Amino acid sequence: MSGDSFGKVFILTTFGESHGYGLGGVVQGCPSGIPLSEAFIQKYLDLRRPGKGISSTKRQEKDKVKLLSGVFEGKTTGTAIGFFIANEDMRSRDYSKIKNIYRPGHADFTYDKKYGFRDYRGGGRSSGRETVSRVVGGSIARAFLNTLGIVIQAYTLELGGIRVEKIDLNEIEKNYFFSPDKDVIPKWENRIQEVKSVGDTLGGIVEIRAFNVPAGLGEPVFDKLDARLAYALMGVGAVKGVEIGTGFEVAKKLGSQTNDFLTSNGFMSNNAGGILGGISSGQDIVVRAAVKPIPSLGKVQRTVDTKGREVEIRVGGRHDISAIPRIVPVLEAMVALVLADFILLQRRMGTF
Ligand SMILES: Cc1cc2nc3c(=O)[nH]c(=O)nc-3n(C[C@H](O)[C@H](O)[C@H](O)COP(=O)(O)O)c2cc1C
Ligand SMILES: C=C(O[C@@H]1CC(C(=O)O)=C[C@@H](OP(=O)(O)O)[C@H]1O)C(=O)O
């Protein structure tokens, strides 16, 4: 499988760069007869779209999806689903100054080491813009998961070191931060303004939950459900850590505080985050992703040019102050892709 594809049975392949004609992909393995429309996918794309909100890049993209194949009379045909999204607001000339300079924290240096050639117009293939195709693939996975009653919900748990104090799932769709705690939003907005005014950027934590996931998805070795989720989330730019359930806190706990005791009515707690031995337990899946601050920032930073000479850089162009909240629907999409893939793998074994 190439580095441009994800999944074993429900497979998403993406193409495109931030400043090319556009981006798109092909989904293979989606079962036939699943209700699917451009309007359904667009709802998720609009949640990720750049150009709105105080932490977002000012680049204006409509991100209108065009379905090219694999859907007839509002249902999937079981064949490859092709899709395309045009780039409309590139301003590629703004990037000539990073043609020969590596931005600290971005993929410029490593990309050049790997390919010996770089599309310097923005992040190219390494740009967060590529995640537009993940959201399309993820929403097709969701259309399939919907038929099974599986629901995925992600939200911002922390932004710039300020954590939500309560989790009210009804609040999430009402604000563009995907915050489950509306009272924390003014604090986040102040923090963003503060950091933006000095040319800096912010990170945070996203929590993703999956409900109604049947017990029995995953593998006992290698392709453990938790391993595949971590792989999926870490495959998104700016994600630097993944936790499942209690996560890193387990290191400080006793075994008796960590185990989820079983009763005839089910589990008494969910420290495991819905996964035991790499296989779903039937409890909610709970995963968190740590997101680093945006590397392209307005402060002067030290770096080198392509000849290795030391230079200073103050990155221009239109950049997010934080990948949060736009990364939230992307991470949701990645979890949807993993669950769809595992369900179809399980179907091959004769279950589900
Ligand atoms: C939705 C999203 C938006 C992003 N926006 C920007 C941006 O505006 N500017 C930028 O330099 N990096 C942005 N990033 C982060 C970079 O793409 C990422 O840091 C870079 O590819 C390097 O990869 P790494 O952080 O995984 O090492 C964004 C990432 C995502 C997922
Ligand atoms: C355009 C989007 O986000 C981009 C993600 C990104 C990056 O380096 O990751 C850098 C900026 O774009 P450019 O490639 O023009 O520098 C963001 O605007 C998008 O998400 O649709």
Offer a concise description of the structure.
Belongs to the chorismate synthase family. The chain has 352 residues and is α+β, with helices and mostly antiparallel strands. 24% of the residues lie in helices and 22% in strands.
SSE arrangement:
Layout: E1 5-6, E2 11-16, E3 22-28, H1 38-48, E4 65-67, E5 71-72, E6 75-76, E7 81-86, H2 108-115, H3 131-146, E8 151-159, E9 162-163, H4 185-197, E10 204-211, H5 225-234, E11 239-244, H6 255-258, E12 262-263, E13 266-267, E14 275-276, E15 279-280, E16 285-291, E17 301-304, E18 310-313, H7 327-348
Antiparallel strand pairs: 1-2, 2-3, 3-7, 4-7, 5-6, 8-9, 8-10, 10-16, 11-16, 12-13, 14-15, 17-18
Helix pairs in contact: 1-3, 1-7, 3-7, 5-7
The chain binds flavin mononucleotide and ligand EPS.
Describe this structure in words.
- The protein has 352 residues and is an alpha+beta fold.
- It has one domain: Chorismate synthase, AroC fold (4-Layer Sandwich), CATH 3.60.150.10.
- The chain has helices at 38-48, 108-115, 131-146, 185-197, 225-234, 255-258, 327-348; strands at 5-6, 11-16, 22-28, 65-67, 71-72, 75-76, 81-86, 151-159, 162-163, 204-211, 239-244, 262-263, 266-267, 275-276, 279-280, 285-291, 301-304, 310-313.
- The strands form 6 sheets. The protein has a 5-stranded antiparallel β-sheet with strand order 1-2-3-7-4, with helices on one face.
- Helix 1 (38-48) packs across helix 3.
- The radius of gyration is 21 Å and the shape is globular.
- The mean pLDDT is 96.
- The chain binds flavin mononucleotide and the ligand C=C(O[C@@H]1CC(C(=O)O)=C[C@@H](OP(=O)(O)O)[C@H]1O)C(=O)O.
- The ligand C=C(O[C@@H]1CC(C(=O)O)=C[C@@H](OP(=O)(O)O)[C@H]1O)C(=O)O binds next to loops.
